[in-house]
Specification:
The protein is mainly alpha-helical. The chain has helices at about 10-40, 65-85, 95-115, 125-155, 160-165, 170-175; strands at about 55, 60. The chain contains 6 helices and 2 strands, in the order αββααααα. The protein has a two-stranded antiparallel sheet with strand order 1-2. Keywords: Membrane, Transmembrane, Transmembrane helix.
């Protein structure tokens, strides 16, 4: 490759990357779901106070039910990424991106705003620390929520299709061309 030349990838590359990022999201969603269930079953439901709260960054459990709900949403979006990677259909692109945008909002609202917002009832220094941690959580969940829709968009990008000879390479399209 010459200096200054960008690498040229086809849709199979982006589909593999979508599987990779969906796997990372699945791990995050299932682990968030698991820590919420564990906290609810072992400590209790409703608002946890004092030493009952669970601190395992990036997970903070004040309301176990919110962790369970957020974990389910992330898990659902990750599974949708596997489906999008396998089908590689242009239909549903905006719904997939919208699902990830909603996933990010759920993470912000249920985790950063709600749980970390009620974490510290102490003095200003303790509240500043919580704000710092919630900022890191927002950036972490943003990265998790942007990469799967980006990889999905790149699968269908015009230049990617050019590298595929102008044809879609979805398994459904390949089967149709083969007469299956």
């Amino acid at each position: 490759m010459e200096k200054g030349q960008a690498a040229k990838y086809d849709s199979a590359y982006y589909a593999a990357r979508l599987v990779y990022y969906s796997t990372l999201a699945l791990i995050g969603g299932v682990s968030q779901l698991a820590i919420g269930i564990l906290a609810r079953d072992e400590i209790g439901s409703g608002r946890l106070v004092g030493a009952q709260r669970v601190v395992a960054p990036p997970y903070f459990v004040v309301y176990p039910e919110l962790n369970i709900a957020a974990g389910l949403v992330v898990t659902f979006s990750a599974v949708a990424g596997y489906v999008r990677s396998a089908l590689r259909s242009e239909a549903g692109r905006w719904q997939f991106a919208g699902a990830w945008a909603a996933t990010w909002l759920v993470q912000i609202l249920l985790m950063a705003a709600t749980q970390l917002g009620v974490w510290s009832e102490g003095e200003l220094g303790a509240r500043r620390e919580v704000v710092f941690v919630s900022g890191m959580l927002v950036v972490l969940t943003l990265a998790l929520s942007v990469l799967p829709p980006y990889m999905d968009a790149m699968i269908h990008h015009p230049e990617t299709k050019e590298r595929n000879g102008g044809q879609s390479d979805s398994k459904v399209d390949l089967m149709a061309r083969a007469g299956v």
